[in-house]
Design brief:
This protein has one domain (about 60-265). It has one helix and 23 strands. The protein has one helix at about 35-45, and strands at about 5-10, 25-30, 50-55, 60, 80-90, 100, 105-115, 125, 130-135, 145-150, 155, 160, 165-170, 175-180, 180-185, 190, 195, 205-210, 210-220, 225, 235-240, 245-255, 265. A seven-stranded parallel beta sheet has the order 6-8-10-14-18-21-23, with no helix packed on it. The chain has a six-stranded parallel barrel with strand order 9-11-15-19-16-12. The longest helix is centred in the N-terminal third of the chain and has 12 residues, at about 35-45.
């Protein structure tokens, strides 16, 4: 299948991305990593919401396509939907990189896909990102502060965030760090492990929030937010810092460490 193969269509149903009735979007069938890279590049050239459909396969990511952002795939700069159909995007490389970087003018929607083994975290978002039925597993961020960094608007629904590691944090860190607007529903955080090099770094095994976060119907299980330090900075599944506002509903929690609190905030001066 040639990498530039695309099917033109006038309407794509079931998208949260707004598509004008008169707009002509593109559908890119993709079977290889090279085709995925080329499809993103072509979709970025259009202001319309384009759709990339993946075969259910392993897509090996072994090089950096967005060197200025240390990302395996081209920076997302337009509305793009990637329908994974159970496909897996997995880093196999000595170089450290994240999987996706979404620019301020980008809008990415990921559906039914596995994102694995990013070593600078998995996703950094400055625009709009939607994750639906996405598994974020086996990612690390030893020199970074999060598996997911959100500076824009992010919606996460029916996802699994598990077995990710942030080792030796020297500043505040979390599995997700939110500076923007985060809506998170029907999602599981399990077996994520964080550690820090000094007591001054706050650790959140689920969400570290500086922005506005609405979190509903989540499971938080068997995560570790560092070794407990009585006089250290906040460490908990959820940590709210600065002017952040966090709203929690229907949170089911079990066997997380430290076990002192579900939500922690800045220490009093």
């Amino acid at each position: 299948m040639p990498p530039n193969l695309a099917i033109r269509c006038g309407l794509v149903s079931g998208l949260m991305l707004a598509i004008p009735a008169s707009a002509a979007s593109m559908v890119f069938p993709v079977a290889t990593t090279a085709q995925l890279v080329e499809a993103i590049r072509q979709a970025n050239q259009s202001a319309e919401a384009d759709v990339i459909t993946l075969e259910r396969a392993l897509f090996v990511l072994d090089q950096i396509e967005a060197p200025d952002q240390r990302a395996a795939l081209p920076t997302i700069t337009s509305p793009i939907v990637i329908r994974g159909n159970g496909a897996e995007l997995r880093r196999y490389a000595l170089d450290d990189f994240r999987i996706f970087h979404v620019a301020a003018d980008g809008h990415l929607r990921l559906e039914r896909i596995v994102i694995a083994e990013g070593s600078l975290g998995a996703i950094r978002n400055f625009g709009q990102t939607e994750l639906r039925r996405v598994q974020l597993v086996d990612n690390t961020a030893s020199s970074n502060l999060a598996i997911i960094e959100n500076y824009g608007e992010m919606h996460i629904d029916a996802c699994e965030v598990s077995f990710n590691t942030i080792a030796g944090a020297t500043r505040d860190a979390g599995t997700i760090v939110n500076w923007g607007q985060l809506t998170l529903t029907a999602t599981t955080f399990e077996a994520n492990v964080l550690s820090r090099r000094n007591a001054g770094a706050a650790l959140a095994s689920s969400v570290l929030n500086y922005g506005e976060a609405t979190i509903t119907d989540v499971v938080i299980a068997e995560n570790i937010a560092g070794d407990y330090e009585l006089n250290g900075s906040p460490q908990a599944p959820f940590v709210n810092l600065g002017n952040g506002r966090i709203e929690l509903q229907l949170v089911r929690e079990r066997d997380n460490l430290p076990a002192e609190a579900l939500v922690s905030s800045s220490l009093a001066p």
